[in-house]
Amino acid sequence: xxxxxxxxxxxxxxxxxxxxxxxxxxxxxxxxxxxxxxxxxxxxxxxxxxxxxxxxxxxxxxxxxxxxxxxxxxxxxxxxxxxxxxxxxxxxxxxxxxxxxxxxxxxxxxxxxxxxxx
Length: 118
Fold this sequence. Notes:
With 118 residues, the protein is mainly beta.
């Protein structure tokens, strides 16, 4: 499992090299303004799973809310941007989102933070 660095987006643009997806999954820091990019260069569709760190929450005066892992299909040859991720749902105790792949072969990934200041 690799820890991915997060690149801040800006209105002037950024250059980012995507990293090889780790076979055992990856983690990336998340502040609620982070998006994840998956480039599937493999010959088949893959599933990318973002692990929910909580399964339910009570809201005063409301029914329980149930959370589950976010599973996103990425077709072969496709690039998909996913997120942002709610910190209370997806962050582990270290403030990171855990992501895994049904196959990491020929898959590259990166994490970007939306920069509201431009």
